[in-house]
Amino acid sequence: MSVRKLKPITPGQRFRIVNNFEEITTNKPEKSLTVGIKKSGGRNNTGKMTMRYTGGGHKKKYRIIDFKRNKFNIEATVKTVEYDPNRTAFIALLEYADGEKRYIVAPNGIKVDQKVISGENVAPEVGNAMKLKNMPLGTVVSCIEMRPGQGAILARSAGSSAQLTSRDGKYAIVKLPSGESRMILVECMAMIGSVSNSDHQLTVSGKAGRSRWLGRRPRTRAVVMNPVDHPMGGGEGRSSGGHPRSRNGKPAKGYKTRKKNKVSNRYIVSKRK
């Protein structure tokens, strides 16, 4: 996994740093696992814009990902490692011994023709999925469930990983990518290994047009707005804008917005950095 810097033969390539995509083995997705996806352009069902700065972008197909890994004790072979326009991580196509195909979020270091399996008592090897109660302590994991059978919702983006630090009764204590240590039920599933495409954060788009291809429209800075549009707007000439805050007046940059009596507080062993 590596990145490369382009030669500046055009202005848009002067600062551009691109992914090498060395792990990718095909550019055609599995047709049976793709569905159409419709863009809303940030509009709701009445056509009113409810999300600013979204719209446009390249046409995509959604790849159906198996986040539950609930096909237990049946070995699968990795057929391809593919790019997915809907997420930062790469995805891997598995073909099970009974012929069924499924996509999973590809872990770091997965190879074509590698065997992976999910179940109760499987080896803690990269790509395998198992319950937190069966993993050795200190294991690096990703794609973690928060409720048994819910499907993975934690540590799914490119390069992210968590660590199983200890177990206490029916809870496992997992150190999450944010630095937070949290109690998660030992019956929850997780995948062994960190997520692929760890160099994603090193890439530089190089020009505004690449953001438009991703469906991101230009973002207006708060200090150039009028007072009616934003608390930081208005003033004569180039005003600094005052205290940084959001459009609805909540202070930004350090102000804590988490509720003191939030239900999930009881599961947090130590807060994020």
Automatic annotation (TrEMBL):
GO biological process: cytoplasmic translation
Pfam families for the chain: Ribosomal_L2_C (PF03947), Ribosomal_L2_N (PF00181)
Keyword rRNA-binding attributed: yes
Residues of the Large ribosomal subunit protein uL2 RNA-binding domain: 42-118
GO cellular component terms attached to this protein's record: large ribosomal subunit
Superkingdom of this protein's organism: Bacteria
Region (Disordered): 207-273
Segments forming domain Large ribosomal subunit protein uL2 C-terminal: 124-251
Gene3D superfamilies associated with the record: 2.30.30.30, Nucleic acid-binding proteins, Ribosomal protein L2, domain 3
Single GO MF descriptor: rRNA binding
Annotated keywords: Ribonucleoprotein, Ribosomal protein, RNA-binding, rRNA-binding
InterPro entries with a match to the protein in the record: NA-bd_OB-fold, Rib_uL2_dom2, Ribosomal_uL2, Ribosomal_uL2_bac/org-type, Ribosomal_uL2_C, Ribosomal_uL2_dom3, Ribosomal_uL2_RNA-bd_dom, Translation_prot_SH3-like_sf
Ranges of Basic residues composition bias in the record: 209-220, 244-273
PANTHER family assigned: LARGE RIBOSOMAL SUBUNIT PROTEIN UL2M, RIBOSOMAL PROTEIN L2
Function field: One of the primary rRNA binding proteins. Required for association of the 30S and 50S subunits to form the 70S ribosome, for tRNA binding and peptide bond formation. It has been suggested to have peptidyltransferase activity; this is somewhat controversial. Makes several contacts with the 16S rRNA in the 70S ribosome.
Assembly behavior: Part of the 50S ribosomal subunit. Forms a bridge to the 30S subunit in the 70S ribosome.
Stored HAMAP family: Ribosomal_uL2_B
Homology family: Belongs to the universal ribosomal protein uL2 family.
Protein's name in the database: Large ribosomal subunit protein uL2
Originating organism: Elizabethkingia argenteiflava
